[in-house]
Specification:
Elements lengths: L1 E3 L4 E10 L9 H10 L4 E4 L6 H13 L4 E2 L2 E5 L5 E5 L11 H11 L2 E4 L8 H4 L4 H7 L5 E6 L11 H16 L6 E4 L12 E6 L4 H9 L4 E5 L2 E3 L2 H21 L2 E10 L2 E10 L10 E4 L7 E2 L5 E7 L7 E10 L4 E10 L3 E10 L2 E10 L5 E10 L2 E10 L4 E9 L7 E10 L2 E17 L6 E2 L2 E4 L8 E9 L3 E10 L16 E7 L15 E8 L2 E8 L14 E6 L4 E9 H4 L8 E11 L4 E6 L13 E5 L1
Parallel strand pairs: 2-3, 3-4, 7-8, 8-9, 26-29, 26-38
Antiparallel strand pairs: 1-2, 2-10, 5-6, 6-7, 10-11, 11-12, 13-14, 14-17, 15-16, 15-18, 18-19, 20-21, 21-24, 22-23, 22-25, 25-26, 27-29, 28-37, 29-30, 30-35, 31-32, 31-36, 32-33, 34-35, 36-37, 36-38
Length: about 625
């Protein structure tokens, strides 16, 4: 952050397009650490169709009173499947089917709308090639253009210029016609290491979010940085040329300050030596502070130029966690922060797995020692829907896995949720704390079970959708897994096609054949995700996620979908998935991860969904329910 006394403005560096684990990005804590160390003054957590990334980031910033701004963001999926960045709002945005109406609603709420990666190859055909993007710009339906996007605009060889250059050329054409259109820049980081690879400089009257948004979208005092080139309106370029040496000077001074740590694992807990290092000549750290997002770390005021302070972290507590630590450099000459991430790695790994024994579903645990030493006298305390028990493991050698069975039955009638809490301790130290909600279903051979009701409503307008009721059941034979879903819906609406089907009334089904419970790794998932819908052209099946090791081409053609519409506005979906594409040979006791949800659109926009499992979402297979063959 640089204050320009002559201009009465702040010169600020930012990235307005970052994803966190609230959608399909990296862990939020890692995002913040990388953003701070990249020298950014502001960022926007622009997660897909949710403002929750911005909300969670703001909580950490507020708690520590850091000189760092979170611009509320949300990457909304429009009806054509293309994306619009929404800034300035901390509320859910309905994905209205009429894009013009969507833009009017966002503006009515006080938000700004920016076209996200308008020439992105996945939506180019529908957004750029049709001229829809250009129409929205030239008619004033949107407020800005994401001129530079780092991640989404890479081609297969990693060259991001393939999609940025057409946008730049269009922007320059507008400039030549005397049209100065607001611009933004975003890394579109789905992995933390890409944050700050591209950035923008904004000249803001105040160090506040409203002032930054005003500078970008009203005053048009922002420039974009990409490949050693700078783009923007003449007024903003002139300011940057005048003060660019100050920005370079601060960057050099930031590099003289470093925060690092050394971890010590002792019998009574975990210690970190947190070190704030600097060049001995400058900058002056006499009034600096070390702050940690984990409240168990004390706040420390730095009173010397060279610091090496020891923090005691998690007394009597060995639970794995991430702890962002910030050094706040704040004196009369400058104000900035540097950061580090203290991580307590797990020493044991526990996987939950329900099994069928004598007609009862019980919970088994696979307990693995992933530490560097032998663990003795490990005590596991468990609580399954208020039935408590204890299990003692005398020892687990390094790398060894042991399976244990809890002597209580899980609920499985009508897909009821099992509330499970497991804690583990050894040598007086807590080393594990797992809380999960696990719904379990039994699928019968050649016969339907009792219907399971969808009872968990996740709607953006916060209203229970009383016009939609849904149930489902499952059964199996030697060739197919069959899932039937009945949806009673007064206002059926499905005008979409392909991967955009989920924006209309539809069903999403996730299948985790081997219960791998893979999380947050889009490139290495061993799961299937299907969208099934009754479109204008008939029943449609779309695979949105396919296991990496799948070798079957066009797997959807091997599945089978029929949809029946009854006179009482009930739609019955019968979806058959062959075991051969799942890579399984079905048998009594086979266990599969399962996720089923009903997408809701009453003709006024995508409202959200109702789901079977209470917690989690399709992004997190570790939260899915379990289907057991009987």
């Amino acid at each position: 952050m640089i204050y320009l006394e002559k201009e009465k403005r702040f010169m600020l560096k930012g990235d307005l397009h970052i994803h966190s684990n609230n959608s399909d990005g990296d862990l939020l804590e890692k995002d913040l650490i990388v953003a701070v160390n990249a020298g950014l003054d502001f960022i926007s957590m622009s997660d897909h169709d949710t403002p929750n990334g911005s909300k969670d980031a703001q909580k950490i910033i507020n708690k520590l009173d850091l000189p760092f701004l979170i611009v509320p963001g949300n990457e909304v999926t429009a009806s054509g499947g293309f994306h619009l960045l929404v800034f300035g709002l901390m509320q859910d945005i309905m994905n209205l089917d009429d894009t013009s109406e969507l833009c009017r609603k966002i503006r009515a709420y006080g938000g700004y709308i920016c076209a996200s990666h308008p020439c992105w190859k996945r939506t180019r055909e529908r957004f750029w090639d049709t001229g829809l993007f250009h129409k929205m710009v030239e008619s004033g339906e949107i407020d800005g253009i994401e001129l530079i996007n780092y991640t989404a605009n890479k081609d297969e060889e990693g060259d991001e210029s393939i999609a940025n250059i057409p946008v730049i050329e269009y922007y320059q054409k507008l400039m030549s016609q005397g049209i100065v259109f607001p611009i933004t820049v975003g890394s579109d980081a789905h992995r933390s290491e890409n944050i700050g690879k591209v950035f923008m400089t904004v000249f803001s009257k105040e160090f506040t979010v409203p002032s930054i948004l005003e500078a970008i979208f009203v005053e048009k005092l922002a420039v974009a940085h990409w490949k050693n080139m700078i783009y923007g309106p003449e007024s903003a370029l002139s300011l940057y040329e005048t003060y660019k040496d100050l920005a370079q000077q601060q960057l050099s001074e930031r590099k003289m300050v470093e925060i690092s740590h050394k971890k010590h694992i002792r019998s009574d807990g975990v210690y970190f030596d947190v070190m704030l290092k600097q060049d001995m000549t400058k900058p002056d750290l006499s009034s600096s502070k070390l702050l940690c997002a984990n409240s168990q770390l004390q706040l420390l005021e730095v009173n010397e130029k060279s610091q090496n302070k020891t923090f005691y972290l998690c007394k009597d507590n060995f639970i794995p966690s991430l702890n962002p630590v910030f050094a706040k450099i704040d004196n009369e000459k400058q104000s900035f922060i540097v950061a580090d991430l203290l991580e307590i790695e797990p020493i044991i790994d526990v996987k939950l797995h329900p099994v069928l024994q004598k007609g009862q579903v019980i919970l088994s645990l696979f307990v693995k020692n992933i530490s560097q030493y032998k663990i003795e006298n490990l005590t596991l305390d468990w609580d399954v829907h208020q039935l408590k028990g204890k299990y003692l493991l005398d020892k687990i050698n390094i790398g060894e896995t042991k399976q244990i069975f809890l002597d209580t039955a899980l609920l499985h009638s009508n897909g009821k949720d099992n509330f499970i809490n497991i804690t583990g301790a050894f040598s007086g130290r807590l080393c594990l704390n797992i809380t999960q909600i696990l719904p379990v279903l039994l699928a019968s051979l050649n016969a339907s079970n009792d219907d399971v009701a969808f009872t968990h409503y996740c709607l953006k307008d916060k209203l229970r959708d009383d016009d939609v009721h849904s149930v489902f059941n499952t059964f199996w034979d030697n060739e197919y897994l069959t899932i039937t879903i009945q949806v009673q819906d007064k206002y059926f609406y499905q005008p979409f096609h392909g991967a955009s089907d989920y924006l209309g009334d539809s069903i999403q089904i996730g299948i985790d054949p081997y219960c791998s419970r893979s999380v947050n790794n889009w490139n290495n998932r061993q799961i299937w995700d299907f969208i099934i819908a009754l479109t204008n052209s008939g029943p449609e099946i779309v695979e949105t996620i396919i296991p990496k090791d799948n070798t079957i081409k066009n797997p959807a053609k091997y599945t089978n979908l029929s949809i029946e519409k009854n006179s009482d506005n009930t739609y019955k979906y019968i979806f058959k998935v062959p075991w051969k594409i799942l890579g399984l040979k079905p048998d009594y006791g086979t266990t599969i991860g399962l996720w089923v949800m009903v997408n809701v659109n009453d003709g006024y926009g995508y409202r959200g969904y109702i789901r079977w499992a209470k917690n989690g979402d399709y992004n997190n297979p570790s939260d899915w329910g379990w289907l057991i063959l009987k």
